[in-house]
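User: I'm writing a short methods note and want a consistent example. For Multicopper oxidase domain-containing protein, I'll paste the sequence; you return only the structure tokens, no commentary, since I'll be parsing the reply automatically.
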Amino acid sequence: MPEIMRASHTPDTNRRSWHRKASRPVSGWLAALLIVAIVSPWIPQSRWLLIHMVTLGVATTSIMVWGQYFTEAILHNNLTDADRRRQVLRIRLLTVGIVVACVGMVATWPWVSVVGAAVVGSTLTWYAFALAHQVRHALPGRFTSTVWFYCAAASLLPLGATLGAIMTFSPTEPWRTRLLVTHQALNLLGFVGLTVVGTLITLWPTVLRTKMQPSQDRHGRVALGVMLIAVVVTSIGALCGLWWLAALGVTTHIAGVCIVLGDLVACAARKPPRDFPGFTMAAAMCWMLVWLVWLVWKLATTGTRLLADDIFTLSVPVIVGFLLQLLIGAMSYLMPMVMGGGPKIVRATNAKMHAYGALRATITNAGLLLWVLAVGMWTRRIGMAMAIVGLATFLPATAAMVRTGIPMLKEKGMAIRQAPPMKAEAPDSGEKTTQPPDRSAVAGTTENAVEPAATTPPDRRSFVGAFAGLATALTAAAVGHRLDASAPTDGSPTAGNVAPTGHTTRVAITAEGMKYHPNTITVPAGDRLVVGITNKDPNQVHDLQFANGAHSPRLAPGAHATVNVGVVTRPTEGWCTIVGHKSMGMVLDVRVNGLPATSDPDRHTETASPRRKIDLTKAPGGEFTPRDAVLPPLLAGRAHTMTLTAEDAVQEVAPQTTINAMTYNGRYMAPVIHARIGDQMRVHLVNKSTMAHSLDFHAGTVSPDEVMRTIAPGQELDYNFTLHRAGIWLYHCSTAPMSAHIAAGMFGAVIVPPHDLPSADRQFYLVQSETYLSEYNGAEVDTAKIANETPDLTMFNGHANQYVFEPLKAKVGERVRIWVLAAGPSRGCSFHVVGTQFDTVFKEGTYILKRGNPEGGGSQALDLASAQGGFVEMVFEEPGRYTFVNHSFVEMERGAKGFIEVTA
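Assistant:
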């Protein structure tokens, strides 16, 4: 035990000085959180930033500070100055890591976020080992299980941080949802949940100023094992997409929490909460259980249709109601204890810290209930404001506590100072530094714990405060309801002097066959409109959005949702936001009875954004891997089984230009298949996208009814056919609108060489396509541009000008064959290689020109309409850099260009 003995004479002022230094980042994060909350509408990824400023910035930093505090109190251990300096260094490194991760996410620099996550994970690993070291070198005692809770929790966060770093690369469904649920399991259930439960074992009885249950420590050890198993089961279930297993894991986690919760409830039954820390911590535990039960229900009932957006539904309110409220409640109790000074001073600082506790707690939690349960926009906003105001009262309460405590400490001669070393080490100094007064902050950690004087207000005052808070919440709800009833959702302008009627018109519609049924509804002027929508399309995903912003989630086949449109004061429309569905006719026309003749309809016009200005002289991004244009070898055997997986992916299509692509197997432009005449193709399609998709192989001759049918997310189909004829055949998604799906990347080529095709020294393939970009990176294709036929890029093999920077290779005298396909969706190709001539041209299944033809003829271009293909052959006579282009030069200037490097 040399470490403990060496630290036993450390002056108390060193511990207080450490606590001040270590806690400074928490104050900084709270201030930054307030600023970001105000300016969040102008910050990219603001929801992500706010959540992680709370969970990482405020909560994780506080956990590291207070976890060390409780560890020392439980183990009866004081550390050396060097140990304390290392603790402060860890917290500063944590702060740096969080800042770097936040900058990377907001600026969309994934690798910067990876660096930040690595720093955060490494710091927490160091912290876990430091706590374990202290436990191993401490004398045996009760409640060491709490410290093991901290060690286990800190060990889980690096895993969660790793998944968070992976998610910065924008994984597509289903991995986006799987990673998110696992990330929350490791971080919220694991890191936060274990830390909270471990702390409450000793802190909750102390806050209530009552004795602990005899079995509390033993139950804590059992709960730790159960909760760890639950986190592992939940994580495995989520990663594997076994949502029933993930639901079982969360249920087990609830059971682990309840093992400890039984003792905590028994303590509260003996002495109920009577001040602000007790009220808020009890409410926070309720929010934790509500969230866990909701999560079990969501995982168990949604199953394979679960999307990341479903998990986000309660994320922010739960983080505020559970995590932030619990943290503020605990700090409200602990800070006066840490300031210390004896019962008289603690009584005075507690009185300031806990003032109006029942009122503050009621306003906070009533506001949270309005935030979560209210239907109207204004009611939700008022509830959110109430919750924030209720929690923000912690700041002036802290300031009042400090203003009260510091003069009293100075008057008593206990002002924070650097005591002379000799005095601190004197056995009869009278300062009793070997038993600091703030040990009383944790129940059962000392043999002679100081019982702080009662500071709670009388029961009548608590009742009055709670009643006042409840009255405030009811008044706020009434005001919010009135505002929701008198103004359209999202602030849409009113027409004339239409007054709200107070009535609600409810309409049920269905989505099927690229139509809403009915597609026209009539509403009395001033009525609130509520639309219930059911997706009856057997395969397609649909949704419904209105011009004022009211919208439903994306609905899988058979799913139902309700959209509260708000008070209708003018004609308006709703439409499906799935790419291309509006242009296919999915529009709901809302007409209004009783309006003035001058009322203008509220329409959402779908206008094409201007052409993007893209610098094609720049090289592709560092993360882009050019597609190898060398023709792959013929598939082995005569029967070929392959799987194509439809999934969404953000893909680069030009320098500094990305698109939310629809892909087969995760890349813009699907794999090229090289097989023989007569080969059997057995293709298995799996839809892991967020919308419906299908397959159409031009190389097959089969009825489209079954194999080309559209399948919904999560569904699969088999597509079997025989390659009867030679050519380069297009395959693509045939789900309407096909133009949008092809422009978004869902196309590929099947190359079937003709009989007795002579050999060539080199064979390449070039598949031309065009795309239509939105105004911003990472967005879906612009269907208005598709309709206007105004492409932004024309590309070979899925990226503009990639072969300008990664030229194809050949040698003088070699015969070079290039297979060319115009995939469209609308543009053809006039393929030309500058500096040479084609002596062989094969187009659409037949030779137009053969080498050694009696006419001595040659060809300068292979002209292809959309969906046509063939190949050309040439022999380069001199070394040099030869340019291949679409000789429709406007297409070449949009990116249909590359080089062939010919060496001697």
